[in-house]
Known about the structure:
Layout: E1 3-6, H1 11-20, E2 25-28, E3 43-46, H2 54-60, E4 66-69, E5 86-88, H3 95-110, E6 138-142, H4 146-157, E7 161-165, E8 176-178, H5 182-187, E9 191-194, H6 208-211, E10 219-222, H7 231-239, E11 245-248, H8 261-264, E12 268-270, H9 279-297
Parallel strand pairs: 1-2, 1-3, 3-4, 4-5, 6-7, 6-9, 7-8, 9-10, 10-11, 11-12
Amino acid sequence: MVRILSYLNNQELIDGIHAAVPEAKVIFIDPSQPLTENLEADCLLCVASFLDGLEEVIAATKGLKWIHIFGTGIDGFPLEATGDAILTSSRGASAVQVAEWAFTCILAARKNLPENWISAPSPLWSIADNIGAVQGQTLSIFGFGSIGRELAKRALAFDMQVLATTRHSSVAMDGVETADSLEALFAKADHLVLAAPATTETDNIVNAKTLSYLKPEAHLVNIARGSLVDENDLKQALDDGKLARASLDAVKTEPLPTDHWIYGHEKVFLSPHLAWCDMQVIDAISTSFLDNLALFAKQEPLNNVVDKEAGY
């Protein structure tokens, strides 16, 4: 019997658990209540955004072998508290949706949208000097995981040049060139997409120095995490004409305060962290856990294991 300690109390998910492993026992945690004594479980199911008291729960649970994060990101998760337990997530579940959003931002920049939409007669009809094709442009992707690969597929279909960087020696995808340095990745970019996880290594990776590598006409797209960008340095680059446009789906503080400069900047196109949104993603996140549950019950290797040292 597999014992699952769960922060989530959703009947559809519970039905899925019993379909995958009929003998599974689910024990629910109410974060607002004191911990039950003598907690025992094989698996802990939690959500990265609900972290209050999580370290205490992990420490108090006897027999814990596996922790699954019901979501795709693990930034902010107390990795040091997991001990010897295997940690998995549902990374990749929203890769298509996020890649599509990033590519939508790229097309919007090249077609100068929404500026070229009109709601009244225009003095210029059938002519514009601020529109071009993405064909032949260079897309640089910082972080070549599941989102980066899905984005590259779409860019290649539009005949873009695709350059990427990864922790590994090669991006290992036909048509995608591996950048030999961060400077090369940034310097060649017409569009630079941030698709890397939030770690100590990527914290403020976009800063005054790295922004100086970009062309003045370059376009920055962040569909990763706000921590990757030094927002003060970004504002300076935009104000000084060293960067043409920034499309941001993630910012450091979410929700963004009402008086933040990002809201009013003419070169910034902000969305409220919704690139992932699609009900199919929730289904994919559930399936990721349930597939792993079936593997765990059979004592087989799990998918989407987090590298605790790397932080993702």
